[in-house]
Every structure is written in C-alpha cells, then in structure tokens.
Amino acid sequence: MISVIGHIGIFGVAAVLFVVLWFGTKGGGKAGQLSWWWILILSFIAGSAFKAAGPPFSWISEGLMDVVRMLRHAFPQLTGPGLAVVIIAIIAFRKLSPRALMFFGVLFTTVAAGAGGAPGWLATQFDMLATSWA
User: Fold this and answer.
1) Assessment of whether the complete model's pTM goes beyond 0.85
2) pLDDT tens, position by position, for the chain (134 residues)?
3) Is 54 a member of any domain?
4) 81 is in which domain, residue-wise?
5) Does residue 3 belong to any structural domain of this protein?
6) Among its keywords, does the record have Transmembrane helix (predicted)?
7) Is 4 part of a structural domain of the chain?
8) Domain count of the fold of the chain
C-alpha cells in the first residue's frame, strides 16, 4: 500500500495527536472544535502513543502515574481496574470541558494499561491502534 504521509513513527503519532487535541479542544480555527467522541477516542489513542513515544511525551504519562500513585496511597483498596471504571464514570456522567475530557481520556489509558480485565484489554487495543498508525 502506498502511503501519502509515509512512516511517521510513534513519536510522530504522539506529536500529531498532541497538536490535534490541544488545538482541537480550543476551537476557533477553520476546522472548528472536535466533537466529544473524537476528543475521547483520540485521547485514548494519544495516551498509548505518549507512553510509547518516550520523552517528552512520556513525561505526561509519568506525571499522571504520580497522581494515580497518590490516589492509590490514599485509597489502598482501590484496584487498577476499579480506578479505570471510576474514570469512565466521571467521563460519562460529569459535564467536562473539552480539555478536561482530553485529560481524563489520557488518564484512563494510563491507568488501564496497568490494570487487568476489560480496561486493560481496551488499553491494549488502543496501543495496537497507535502503533499501527506509526
């Protein structure tokens, strides 16, 4: 298959998703603001790409894991899959700004990557999608 873009690599995927999500959640440009579902799906994929791309993108995942460690220390009985489902509940039932939705989407992928069960499986699928785009 002939590619118009060529091989951009996982770092390129992370960079493109960062730019699209950062400016796509603000709006105001010709393309306008991304819809809720686009922000959510792209942030899930971006979370996987950030982790795999290395610095400076991996710093985002590492910073989010510091927050997760604080939560796990405050609530030791809260498991990884439990925290992932809590994040999904916040996304589903809380009115979030586009940037907050982007944050929680990346946070979900970061948490779910270390969790088992359905959240872990979902994170694996987004990881495979991000690497296939690279």
Assistant:
1) no
2) 455 555 777 888 888 889 999 998 887 778 888 999 999 999 988 888 887 788 888 888 888 888 888 988 999 998 888 888 899 999 999 999 999 999 998 888 888 877 666 666 777 777 777 777 66
3) yes
4) 9-133
5) no
6) yes
7) no
8) 1
